[in-house]
Design goal:
Shape: globular
Strand content: under 5%
Radius of gyration: 17 Å
Largest sheet: none
Helix content: over 70%
Distance between the termini: 29 Å
Structural class: mainly alpha
Order of helices and strands: HHHHHHHH
Oligomer: single chain
Number of strands: 0
Number of helices: 8
Length: 208
């Protein structure tokens, strides 16, 4: 739900208007994540599967076009990952959690990290809403998904690159988290990817 709040307020979409459907998406993602991590024990696939589920559920429940669903999901997931790292490093520096606790699937330390990240995400989403920040070039859903549209080659290429990039980052996060010396490198990669997307969307906003 915290990631959905970031997605919707980044693009100035009404959050509470879709409360029931967003709750369904959040529950679906939570159950899928629990099964992947705790039941099937394949946590390295969790973020990649979540990305795909976000895109599919946004498209068919919220009625967002496929291209826009990828764009919105990419920004939301990258932003949440950045928040996670900043919160984690802050809690680690303060001695509230340890690196060993962060690698566990459950426990007090990971609970503190998760709740802190979610509260920060909701706080940032509220600030975006309160001060009218965010992008406005994407039309508010729902849209007619069956209405014929012509997609430019550039838009298709951007969507493919976004998808491949996010899936690659998502798939590598779990492995790099187990090697603490690479955390700063991973943070810089995610920050760079997010900065590029924000810059491109800012230019698009100015053009529109």
């Amino acid at each position: 739900m915290a990631i959905l709040a970031l997605m919707f307020k980044t693009f100035r979409w009404p959050f509470w208007e879709f409360g029931a459907k967003l709750s369904l998406i959040a529950v679906t993602l939570s159950v899928a994540s629990y099964l992947i991590r705790m039941v099937w024990d394949i946590p390295s696939y969790d973020l990649a599967v979540q990305f795909i589920l976000y895109v599919v559920l946004l498209r068919y429940l919220i009625k967002v076009s496929l291209f826009h669903a990828v764009d919105v999901t990419a920004v939301g997931c990258l932003a949440f990952n950045v928040i996670q790292f900043i919160v984690y490093f802050s809690l680690l520096a303060a001695g509230i959690v340890s690196a060993e606790e962060a690698q566990q699937p459950a426990g007090t330390g990971i609970f503190i990290i998760q709740v802190s990240c979610e509260l920060c995400s909701f706080g940032i989403a509220y600030l975006l809403y309160r001060f009218h920040y965010g992008f406005s070039f994407l039309m508010k859903p729902p849209l007619d998904l069956y209405m014929s549209r012509k997609s430019s080659g550039g838009q298709l290429a951007k969507t493919v690159i976004n998808t491949i990039g996010i899936l690659a980052i998502s798939s590598s996060v779990y492995w790099l988290l187990n090697y603490q010396e690479y955390l700063l490198i991973l943070l810089m990669v995610i920050l760079g990817a997010l900065a590029i997307l924000v810059y491109l969307y800012y230019k698009k906003d100015l053009q529109d």
